[in-house]
Amino acid sequence: MPKTTRKISALIFLPLIATAVFFSVPFLAEAAVSPFQISAVNVEPVGDFVLEPGKIDVYLEPGETVTRTIFVTNRNPRKINFRIETEDIEGNRDPINPVTLLGEAKGPYPFKDALLPAVTEFELDFGQKIAIPIQIKIPLNASPGGHYAAVIISNAPSKLQKDVGGARVISRLGALFFVRVKGEVKEEGQLKEVRIAGPQQLFYEKGPSTFEVLFENTGTVHLVPYGRLRVTNLFGETISEVPVDAYFSLPSSLRYREVEWQPGFLLGRYTASVELYRGYKNSNDISDTQTVSFWVIPKMLLLEIFIVLLLIVLAIRYVVTHFEFRKRKE
User: Fold this and answer.
1) Residue 169 — pLDDT band, cuts 50, 70, 90?
2) What is the domain extent for residue 215?
3) Which helix (H) or strand (E) holds 4?
């Protein structure tokens, strides 16, 4: 090939190669550092979105950084815009609602600024699922103990997205982050009460089906109590055992745990005993025991006993009023 032809070819292809490299490099770089991944999943159109997991536990050293991933799935039949925020959380003395979101306020164990989502806004079509990395960065001067915050996912509807009443609806879900910084901490808590759920009764027809276990955390870290419920009869014989599944309790808080029980046929007096381990990590675990007693007498049985007693009384009265009893002479 003549030299002139080679020069012309080089002049033609070099700009093309340079253009291709110029446009491809940003795309390659974006693919390499993409902060999240979106995939398609098979879901039913139920008009909501799902956040998982609901709670993440992490044990770290001061100055340590790790990453955990949360997942959001859109089950709304239209495209939804989402917003990500972080809030501090704290426990409270309301045993029914054990966690309080603090909004812009700082909590007693502030940590929301240490949670760094990879993105703060995103959108999903119906049936799409996004994986979002959350960086957890522990400050070097972080105090030992528990630090608690939540990553809040909320839909951000446009002005055109309204419900039937004309008002925009914003839904919020939170993933709780329980971060324990290693060091000297105070683990302290105890079982406070075991009671029968619902209105208290002198007699139960079939026996209670739900018990409530109240635990108080007075330490500086969250605890995860667990144990078992044992039901015994009047003679001390065990008729049933049910596990008390592990559940979290934040510092300076009270929390109830409901324990479901499926009683069979019961008659008489019974005692429900709960042995609950406090969930200590740094020392030997300790258990507490509380009991509650109850009577089970079926209404039909009471009615039958009443009828039988009534018949006996009527029979005695009849005999006394219709027959004359004389003492036999010797």
Assistant:
1) low
2) 189-302
3) helix 3-32
